[in-house]
Amino acid sequence: MNRNNFLIHLALAIVLILIAAFAGQLNRWRRQWRHRVHIMPVAEKKRPSTAEEIALAEGRPGRAELLVKFKSNVSLSTIDEITSRLHDRIEDRIESDPGLEAIDDLDDADVAETVAQYSALPEVEYAEPNYEISLDAVDAPSLPVLPRDPRFEDQWALANSGQRGGTAGADISATRAWIKTTGSDKVVVAVLDSGVDYTHEDLMQNMWQRPANMAPYQDNELGTVEDEFGFNAIDNSSDPMDENGHGTHCAGIIGAEGSNDIGISGVNWKVRIMPLKFMNAGGFGTTKDAIEAINYVIDRKKAGVNVRIISASWGSTQKSRSLEEVIRKAYENDILFVAASGNASTSNDRTPHFPSSYNVPNVVSVAALDRNDKLAKFSNFGMKSVAIAAPGVDILSTWLGNQYEEKSGTSMATPVVAGVAALIVSENPRISVDELKKKLLASVDPLPQLKDKITTGGRVNAAKAVE
Amino acid sequence: MSISKQDAVEKARKDLARRLNVDASAIKEQSVEDDDFPDMALGAAEDGEMSGQMITSGWRIRLGAEGKNYEYRADKNQVRLYGFKGKNYRV
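^ Those are the sequences you sent over. The predicted structure of the assembly is below.
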C-alpha cells in the first residue's frame, strides 16, 4: 500500500468511527427522548376525576402493565390475537389461574384507559392495573378501627365525635390505637375494687381464671383459698362477685369484650381481668383488706401470672404506711399501680389523697376530664402529685346484671389509664414497670387548661402510647 | 336492702338522739336535700376506710338539737354522720 492509499484508508476509518460514534450518540439521544416521551404523558396526565381514576392514581401503578383475567371459554390463541390487536404483549401467563395474563402495554398508554379497554371486551372477566407495591403503601395512614358494639357511639372517651355537646377529638384516640393493637389475653390487669360481676355477658370472655396447672393461693393465716376467679379479701374467700357495681364498671372500661356485638367496648378488646374484692356492697372497704388483696396480686405474679397492672379507683385522705409499703412491694415485682386522684376538687399537693399520693415509683395518679377536655369540676389535681388526666365524666360501662350505666369520677378515669397501660404491655410484653410508666406519661396530648394543674399537663393518648 | 330517704332520715334521728342522749322528739329535721357526694363513703369516710371515687347521689340530712346543727349523709346503701366532734361515723 502506497502512502496515499494508506491516508485514504485511514481517513475512511476515522469517518466510519465518527459515523458509528454519532450513530451511538443518536441512539442514546433517541432512547432519552423516548424515555422523556414515556414519562411525560404520565406527568402531564389529566388530574384524576372519577373514583376509578383516583383509585388508579393513588394505587401508583409501576408501569403500563395490566393483569387481565379472560373468561374460561376463551382460548389461548384468542387471547394472543386480542393482545396483538391491541398492540400489547403477554409478559407472563399465571399458570395457577388459567386465563390470568400479565400484559405489557407496548404503547405505554394511560393505564386507566387500557384497563377500560380490556374491561369492555366480552372475552374479559376483569382487568386491573399491576399495582406497584411499595413501602409507601404500607406506611400510608390506616383507617381508624371501629368495633361492632351497639353502644360504642355513646363511649365518647374512646371516640368523641362531639356527641351530646362534647368536643370532637377530646378522647384517648382509641380507634387509632386499635390499628396497632386491641389488647392481648396474655396481659392480666387486677381490678382492686368491689369485685367484678364475672358473669356479665360483655366481660365473661375477658375474665382471668387461674390456670389449671397453678396451685391455689396459700396464705399462712388464711390457709388455702381456691382462687379460681380471683380473690375476696373481705371474707378471705375465693368469690370476688361484685355486690355494688363500681368494680364491674371499672372492669368494663378496661376490658369489656370488643366488637362482640354486645353493649360496649373496653379500651382493650381482649385482656384478662383479675377481680379483687375489698370493698363491700356500699362501695367502701378497709385499708387492711386492700393490703391483703395487693398481697394476693404479688403472690400470683410470683406464681407466674402475667399481672402487670393494678387499677385502684378508690382512696381517702388517710395515709397508711402499711399500704404504701405493699404498693412498693408491687413495684419491686414490676406491677404498675394506677390510682384515682380523688373527687374533692382540691390540690393533692396541699391535701394528699392516698394511695394516689404515695411517693412510690409505680404509682400513677389520675385526674378526670369531661367530654370537652376540661378538668372535671370534682377532680383533684396537683402539679407535683397528679400525673395524668383521662376521661371521667358520664362514662358508659358495664353494671351488675348485664346492665350498663353512665358514671362519673376519677374512679372512671383510672381504668382508662390502666387500660392504655395494658395496651402498651400487649405490644411490649417485656417492658419494665419504669418504662411502662414513662411511655404512658409520654403519650399525653398536652392541654393548655391542664398546664398548671397536673405534672404532664395532658390527656392520655392510647394511639401515641402504642406507637 | 335498699334504704329509702324516709328510712335514712329516721335512722339519722335515732342515731343523733342516742349520741346526745336525748329523746328522739327533741331532734328537729331542718332540711333533707338530694345531693351528689364525691365518693362512695359520701365524703364522710371513717378512719382507715377507703371508698370508690365515684360521684354518688344521695341525701344531705340536716338535723338540729339543743341549739346545734348536725349533718348526716345517706344513700340507698348507708347513713353517715359527718364531722361529729371532728370525726365521721357510719351509722
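Helices of chain B lie at 5-20. Strands of chain B lie at 28-37, 49-52, 56-65, 68-75, 78-84, 87-90.

Shout if you want it in another format.
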